[in-house]
Amino acid sequence: MILVVDNLGFTTNILTHQLGAVHIAPAAELAALNFTDYSHVVIPHGTQIPDLSGLLGLSDLPVLAIGSGYQHLAAAYGHDTVASAQPVYGEPVAHQHTRTGILGGLDRPVELISYHAWRLTAMDPGTFSIEAVDDAGNVLVYRVAGTNHWGIHCELAALQSSTGARILENFLALAPTPSTETPPEATTPRQAAQRHPVFTRTLSGKLDTEATFRRLQRDATAAFWLDSAAAHLGQGDTSIMGTNTGPLAQTVRWDVATNQLDIEQAGNQTSRTEDVLDYLKHHAWQADQPLELEGFTGGWVGYLGYEAKQATMVGHINTHQAATPDAYWIKPQAFLRYDHRTQVTTLVAYVDETLLDTLQTALAFGPGTQPESTSSHPTTGQWRLTTEEYQHRAIEIQAMLQGGEAAGICLTDTYNLDDYRGDSLDLYGRLRTKNPAPYAGYLRFNTFGDELEVLCASPEEFLKVDRAGLVESKPIKGTVARSSDPAQDVQIAQQMAADPKIQSENLMITDLLRDDLAKVSQPGSVAVPKLMAVESFATVHQLVTTVTGHLRPHIPVVEALRAVFPGGSMTGAPKPFSITALDHLEAGPRGIYSGAMGWLGDNNTAELNVVIRSIIIDAGQLSIGAGGAVVVGSDPVAEELEKHLKAQALLDSIAEQS
């Protein structure tokens, strides 16, 4: 068996896919292990400082220390001299190497991706055999003399470290390789879903989705509209609407600090102590006859707020507590789906067929109307951080990156407007017109005494799982404003795609998302079918990468959400370090912003966005979150301007309504 040390990095899981059968042990538990029980030991990059003294007498045991691990292994052998920090995260580093040992058979020079700031130098040739150096002579790969202990500066599991797999093969060949058969996973059988009769009805015609939703939600205490607002632009195809109407429908609210779960069904309210994701997982329905429809056919619709990270990130304790509930979900007994491509509306109801009539009564057909143009009036809200404070926080992050503590961190801020009195559905109509997005949506909860609304125009897919178990995430890193001049608009998009800072930012998050999906995907199935593709929206161009995997058998989709939440594009890498640093850098809770919103299907499918480009209205208190990833090459002034760019369409919509 191969031992992999968990140093809380962001490539450990994808590395285990490459290695095969492994035992993963936290760095803090190494002292309790007998290293002779293992055929190989791998020490990945991360933020922990493992005690490696137990390896010193085991010269024949193959040991591979990567990134920060290579520095810690050298320290265990008495060497700690490093060159000046070189935080070239996500960029290739040329290796002039000996073509021996783990570097055998590689081209010379060879390029590998760096996520570690420090490079060893002035190593004692009597203790260390220098196997690769950079152009300045700093040590990139070494072997401890007379042993099978190797240190390598660069990241073998990075997407663009194309020779990383060959180096791992050479390392495994240093000793007999154990069977790569992974032992069967211990799984908890999924609780049998309640079987219910299901009724459907289809109608053809162009649906006025906004007018339909206004009618549908009028008498309900909670309602949702997952809105393919950019379908006319070829982005998104199906809109879903529903409410908590019906005796079987449920609305649940959850607080992460107390773990209190409030449940409303048929006018009755109860409370219990339970994790919301556990509750959603254990309360599924099964249609008595299969619905041959892609996408949502029944389940839960709602959101998981950012501060829910306390329940999904082991050992993390929130610094801030959100004013809004940390989760809110509706299990509709009846809902409708509208296919924008075919202009077909499908009504779905469980148990009670008459609910189809209720849905049909709400339908409004026709082209719809655009919000009336009005003059804009300045909004009177303010950001939590001043311009200078935001820029200073970006500089603080860059100091962390220079010190090798992280490769990039996503800094955000919150805009607050007190005493909002407008028509929120009208505001959402303006937002979806001004900034149409494929993962848009509107949620309303007038339950448990709350008056909460989420108006979302998100362009970013966080997590999608289809019926075949294909898992997909599409992180966005890179945003520039569009131009009204067509030629200049094309040039702006091309410049963004070629920007080294943006590329570095996108590659870092791509590797983080690959690692996240590896937690729940079948070994070897994680792939990147699209890397840094330009996607254009109404007001901005963005650089989008698609990461996929195949869900391991018997993994509930709720557990996939738990494993990858919060989204790496909104935290940074490594994620554990980033979320802790952000709790101290940011001036308050993010709340619903940068969480996830969408649906979890009873048939183990899902589609959730990243809650960005969104307006939250909580009992008249309006808030907007915005920000961006800070990397070594960031300009703090430009980072603050990017925050305003991302919030502009939201603020313009509010200003038009004022």
Radius of gyration: 26 Å
**Residue-averaged pLDDT, rounded?**
93
Q: Ranges with pLDDT <50 over ≥5 residues? A: none
Globular, elongated, flat, extended or rod-shaped: what is the shape?
globular
* Helical/strand content category: alpha+beta
CATH class call of the domain at 301-315 and 410-657: Alpha Beta
- Per CATH, the superfamily of the domain at 301-315 and 410-657 is Anthranilate synthase
Q: In what range is the share of β-strand residues?
A: 25-35%
Query: Would you identify the CATH architecture of the domain at 301-315 and 410-657?
Result: 4-Layer Sandwich
Strands, total number: 35
Largest sheet: 12 strands, antiparallel
Instruction: Estimate percent helicity.
Output: 10-25%
Annotation field: number of helices: 14
Query: What fold name stands as the CATH topology of the domain at 301-315 and 410-657?
Result: Anthranilate synthase
Distance between the termini: 65 Å
Topology:
Blueprint: E1 2-6, H1 12-19, E2 22-26, E3 40-43, E4 63-66, H2 68-76, E5 91-97, E6 110-114, E7 128-133, E8 139-144, E9 149-152, H3 164-172, E10 194-196, E11 198-204, H4 209-217, E12 222-227, E13 238-243, E14 250-255, E15 260-265, E16 268-273, H5 276-282, E17 285-287, E18 299-304, H6 309-312, E19 327-331, E20 334-339, E21 344-350, H7 355-362, E22 382-383, H8 387-402, E23 408-417, H9 424-434, E24 439-445, E25 452-458, E26 461-465, E27 470-473, E28 476-481, H10 486-498, H11 500-518, E29 527-536, E30 540-550, H12 557-564, E31 572-573, H13 575-585, E32 596-601, E33 606-610, E34 614-618, E35 621-630, H14 636-657
Parallel strand pairs: 1-2, 1-3, 3-4, 4-9, 10-17
Antiparallel strand pairs: 5-6, 5-7, 7-8, 8-9, 11-21, 12-13, 12-24, 13-20, 14-15, 14-19, 15-16, 18-19, 18-32, 20-21, 22-23, 23-31, 23-35, 24-25, 25-34, 26-27, 26-33, 27-30, 28-30, 29-30, 32-33, 34-35
Helix pairs in contact: 1-11, 4-7, 5-12, 8-14, 9-14
